[in-house]
Specification:
The complex is a heterodimer of chains A (112) and B (112).
Chain A: E1 4-7, E2 10-14, E3 19-25, E4 32-38, E5 45-51, E6 56-59, E7 62-67, E8 72-77, E9 86-94, E10 99-102, E11 106-111
Parallel strand pairs in A: 2-11
Antiparallel strand pairs in A: 1-3, 3-8, 4-5, 4-9, 6-7, 7-8, 9-10, 9-11
Chain B: E1 4-7, E2 10-13, E3 19-25, E4 31-37, E5 44-51, E6 54-57, E7 64-66, E8 76-78, E9 87-94, E10 101-103, E11 107-111
Parallel strand pairs in B: 2-11
Antiparallel strand pairs in B: 1-3, 3-8, 4-5, 4-9, 5-6, 7-8, 9-10, 9-11
The chains are: A mainly beta (112), B mainly beta (112).
Chain lengths: 112, 112
């Protein structure tokens, strides 16, 4: 079936440290993997995405890695800041159903 | 500016009432989705549509119905609201193929 598993469900790190969130997906035909950030009381918004023709993509302090063989991808945030505190969702585009399927979300807390 | 508009933003309603949550988009997208989300929690897909006159039920069992008579409009109707329907409802759209989803600001529903 269409499934995206996301871990951990909660993550707490010290300001300045790195945070890593991991996702696995069930459809080997998936080729598009976006990540969303949802701040308190706001709508989810895209922060970075990756397609299967690359293994890694970086945008300033955030990076995403993709391992198509293992069917998993990860979000890396370096030099974390208080404004990084939010809920993060991974997603994978499932070819058969032609829709995005979201992971369960990770609540990231940055401790000062 | 292209966007997704949800009305009302907040709604408090009595048990047994019929309600319709509105979602309109100027994104020009074919695909539209409804998600139910408790604050900061998982996004549960309840309905989606590939285009006009196309609607599918999502993963979460829901007592709601949707219609897609026009590309821009994807209303969600609850025939008889119950306290268990208290939640936030997010509307989203995405374009053709493997593309990101864009979210509306949500409707926060409270059934008393």
């Amino acid at each position: 079936g269409e499934n995206v598993e996301q871990h951990p469900s909660t993550l707490s790190v010290q300001e300045g440290d790195s945070a890593v969130i991991k996702c696995t997906y069930s459809d080997s035909a998936s080729n598009y993997f976006p990540w969303y950030k949802q701040e308190l009381g706001k709508r989810p918004q895209l922060i970075i995405d990756i397609r299967s023709n690359v293994g890694e993509k970086k945008d300033q302090r955030i990076a995403v890695t993709l391992n198509k063989t293992a069917k998993h991808f990860s979000l890396h945030i370096t030099e974390t800041q208080p404004e990084d505190s939010a809920v993060y969702f991974c997603a994978a585009f499932f070819q058969g159903a032609q829709k995005l399927v979201f992971g369960q979300g990770t609540r990231l807390t940055i401790n000062p | 500016e292209a966007d997704i508009y949800q009305t009302p933003r907040y709604l408090v309603i009595g048990t047994g009432k019929k309600i319709t949550l509105e979602c309109s988009q100027t994104m020009g997208h074919d695909k539209m989705y409804w998600y139910q989300q408790d604050p900061g929690m998982e996004l549960h897909l309840i309905h989606y549509s590939y285009g006009v006159n196309s609607t599918e039920k999502g993963d979460l069992s829901s007592e709601s119905t949707v219609s897609r008579i026009r590309t821009e409009h994807f209303p969600l109707t609850l025939e008889s609201a119950r306290p268990s329907h208290t939640s936030q409802y997010l509307c989203a759209t995405s374009g053709t193929g493997e593309s990101e989803a864009f979210f509306g600001q949500g409707t926060r529903l409270t059934v008393v």
